[in-house]
Design brief:
The complex is a heterodimer of chains A (about 90) and B (about 450). Chain A contains three helices and four strands; from the N terminus they run βαββαβα. Chain A is an alpha+beta fold. Chain A has a four-stranded antiparallel β-sheet, with helices on both faces. Chain B has a domain of about 170 residues: Anaerobic Ribonucleotide-triphosphate Reductase Large Chain. In chain B, the strands form two sheets. In chain B, strands 1, 2, 3, 4, 5, 6, 7, 8, 9, 10, 11 and 14 form a twelve-stranded mixed β-sheet that branches. In chain B, helix 2 runs parallel beside helix 5 and helix 7 crosses helix 14. The relative contact order of chain B is 0.13. The chains are: A alpha+beta (about 90), B alpha/beta (about 450). Chains A and B meet through strand 1, strand 2, strand 3, helix 2 and strand 4 of A and helix 1, helix 3 and helix 9 of B.
């Protein structure tokens, strides 16, 4: 199963490092990373594989969202199917 | 590989444009609970509901976590209680409402719908007694919602029921006068009631439904409003196209959630209701969609045309996105629950007469409108009759949810709180409908009901 991690907010040093470290900690494999600035927001998108994750989805999500709150970033972890369903026929 | 813009578009819809799944509603048939023993009936109803929907809230929370989309309400709809209680008296019906409330509390759901009756042609003893019980049932519970179908295109309008429902509305307002007559927010009078609607206060589980079913209501007026704004000045063909594409995307999310909920709860998937349901939150308003189309204020000339196009485009976009579309599906136009409608009503741009015209092309009817507390029951019945006639003649669902706020008059406003919002008391026509309503009997079905 794949999930999409999105990080939206003001740019600062070490965002990718922090999020990648969390992924490594929980055995989440990063497949792809893109970064862009849209509508005044810094946005990073990570596609990750979570089949071998060493925790459950809810914990991983809560952990990353916690990190986001500390750093004043909006971090979301969502199952890839919501995007596939909405944008693919 | 997913496209970055697509991902950001979805995130933006949720983050800034209030896209959400408004409700996952489990329909539960209570027909197998019927018993001539009141105690036994109560136990069976409580057990059936709490057993069937025991995982509803947990599953909704799990889906919310997995897909990152807020699921605002978890609800249950049941077989119209008048069919289950049969010939019980009004007091027994009030007790059944208490049982529904208890089951709703046990499950942790937001609302339970179906304390209602189908009386479009005539009233059984059970239906009559249930209707008698509505004011007390709604004033002694907080989660129980009541709907009464008084007409259909096929059979016409039961004017005795219309008369009675005006009185019931007034009695409910009086019994809940300490809370600004909030009981009336849980009571709705229908024509052509859909049997699979997941939205309150009109949700019920129809006679032709399976034992249990999952129906999902999606929302997202903010998403449509933003899409129109982004499109800028364009002609109506392009505008309709923009709405269609947006409605498609919104409905796809609903389809995904409905499919997953049905799988995880091991319950058949019923329908997606692709209604644009506003909330009082900024950026979640149907009125603002209409205003983004170029109307200075919702309610001005052109509003009915704008709403007609919106309602139709939403359906066209949504119908391709889902395998089964049902319920009400379209655009809701409640007053107190929509920041743009509230503002339009406050400045006088939006009147009850204009709202009535708008209901001819929206998905439901006169909704969440606060009216003076001294409005006679016959005037309420007159409003119901007008609205129901629009539904019957135009072969569509219409409904009336008015709140005669006891002790308040035009110039004052009322605060319901939460999703119910606030509203100015709207002025009504001062002339009487009493002699008209007194006639009783049935308004015959329109000629186009004879389609066989």
């Amino acid at each position: 199963m794949k999930a999409v991690i999105t990080v939206i907010g003001k740019d600062s040093v070490g965002i990718i490092a922090t999020v990648s470290a969390e992924c490594a900690k929980y055995g989440v494999n990063i497949i792809d990373i893109t970064q862009s600035v849209i509508q005044d927001y810094f946005a990073m998108i990570m596609l990750v594989e979570i089949d071998n994750m060493n925790t459950n989805f809810g914990n991983f999500k809560a952990e990353l969202e916690g990190v986001g709150k500390e750093k004043n970033l909006d971090i979301r972890v969502m199952h890839e199917d919501i995007f596939n369903t909405m944008h693919r026929i | 590989m997913l496209n970055t813009n697509d991902i950001l578009e979805t995130i933006n819809m949720i983050r800034q444009e209030n896209l959400d799944i408004r409700t996952i509603t489990m329909g539960i048939s209570l027909l197998d609970c019927i018993s001539d023993d009141q105690k036994r009936l109560e136990t069976k109803i409580y057990d059936k509901i709490t057993k069937s929907a025991k995982d509803l809230v947990a599953t909704a929370l799990e889906l919310e976590r997995t897909y990152g989309i807020p699921i605002i309400n978890k609800r249950v709809s049941v077989t119209p209680i008048s069919l289950v209680g049969a010939d019980f008296g009004p007091e027994e019906y009030v007790r059944l409402a208490g049982v529904l409330e208890k089951a709703a509390n046990e499950l942790g759901i937001n609302f339970i719908g179906g304390f209602g009756a189908l009386v479009q042609k005539g009233m059984t003893k059970g239906a009559k007694n249930l209707i008698e019980a509505i004011p007390e049932a709604l004033s002694t519970t907080t989660k129980v919602c009541s709907s009464v179908n008084v007409a259909s295109t096929k059979v016409g309008i039961n004017m005795d029921a219309v008369k009675r429902m005006g009185e019931i509305m007034r009695e409910t307002a009086i019994l809940t006068k300490d809370q600004d007559s909030i009981g009336c927010a849980k009571l709705v009078v229908f024509a052509n009631i859909p049997e699979d609607n997941p939205f309150m206060a009109g949700a019920m589980h129809g006679m032709g439904e399976s034992d249990t079913v999952i129906n999902v209501g999606v929302s997202g007026p903010g998403v449509v409003a933003s899409a129109i704004k982004r499109e800028g000045f364009c002609d109506f063909s392009r505008l309709a196209d923009t709405i269609k594409k947006t409605a498609f995307k919104i409905t796809r999310v609903g389809q995904l959630i409905a499919y997953e909920a049905s799988k995880r709860l091991n319950t058949p998937y019923g329908i997606i209701d692709l209604s644009l349901a506003p909330t009082p939150a900024v950026g979640d308003s149907v009125a603002h969609i209409l205003e983004n189309m170029g109307l200075e204020k919702c309610g001005t000339h052109g509003t009915t045309a704008a709403l007609a196009m919106l309602n139709d485009a939403v359906k066209k976009g949504g119908v391709m996105a889902s395998s089964h579309v049902g319920g009400l599906s379209g655009a809701f136009i409640p007053v107190s629950e929509d920041a743009g409608m509230i503002s339009a009503a406050e400045c006088g741009a939006l009147t009850i007469e204009k709202l009535e015209a708008m209901t001819a092309v929206c998905s439901v009817g006169l909704d969440m409108i606060a009216v003076p507390g001294n409005t006679p029951a016959s005037t309420l019945s007159g409003i119901i009759a007008d609205e129901i006639a629009i539904g019957v003649i135009n072969n569509k669902t219409t409904a009336v949810r008015l709140i005669p706020v006891i002790g308040k008059d035009v110039g004052e406003s009322v605060e319901f709180g939460g999703l119910l919002g606030h509203a100015p008391i709207m002025p009504l026509n001062k002339y009487s409908s009493e002699e008209f309503i007194k006639r009783g009997g049935r308004i015959p079905a329109p000629i186009h009901s004879l389609r066989n």
